[in-house]
């Protein structure tokens, strides 16, 4: 009836999210190859990765994408149905960097309850019936 979230993990620097116990993985952007506690995912297919980098700059996005590629290393460039889906939410100014990683602007526009001071887009490496590249 409900989706199975047993394999969901949150990679986050902010330790307030530790309330989610085993779902929380402390993540430091400055150590993108250090995915502590995710060694159990070594032989697990990562189906989808939602990415929301903390800063709007090229260095931040590139470091984040190092981690994304590591998480999906066995199927990042796959053309098959096993390809890891990636949905990135970041500023419009990051479009050229997103494209370097095979992520394209979509028709989904992120919003925030207190508003966003910069124009944000969602980028993905996949389309669905409702999520389309623009």
Question: Quick summary of this structure?
Answer:
The chain has helices at 58-71, 95-100, and strands at residues 10-12, 24-26, 48-51, 85-91, 104-105, 120-124.
Please give a structural write-up.
The protein has helices at residues 58-71, 95-100, and strands spanning 10-12, 24-26, 48-51, 85-91, 104-105, 120-124. The chain is an alpha/beta fold and 134 residues long. The chain has a domain at 49-124. The longest helix is centred in the middle third of the chain and has 14 residues, at 58-71.
- Beta-strand content estimate: 15-25%
Please, what is the average pLDDT? 87
Low-confidence stretches: none
Strand order of the largest sheet: 3-4-6-5
- Determine the N-to-C terminus distance: 33 Å
Cα Rg: 15 Å
Helix and strand sequence: EEEHEHEE
Q: Which term fits the overall shape?
A: globular
The number of helical segments is 2
Which structural class best describes the helix and strand composition? alpha/beta
Percentage of residues in helical conformation? 10-25%
The strand count comes to 6
> How would you characterize the largest beta sheet?
4 strands, mixed
Topology:
Layout (H helix, E strand, L loop, with lengths): L9 E3 L11 E3 L21 E4 L6 H14 L13 E7 L3 H6 L3 E2 L14 E5 L10
Parallel strand pairs: 1-2, 3-4
Antiparallel strand pairs: 4-6, 5-6
InterPro entries: Efm5/EEF1AKMT1, Mlase_EEF1AKMT1/ZCCHC4
Keywords: Cytoplasm, Methyltransferase, Transferase
GO molecular function: protein-lysine N-methyltransferase activity
List keywords for this structure.
134 residues; alpha/beta; four-stranded mixed sheet; two-stranded parallel ribbon; 6 strands; 15% helix; globular; Efm5/EEF1AKMT1
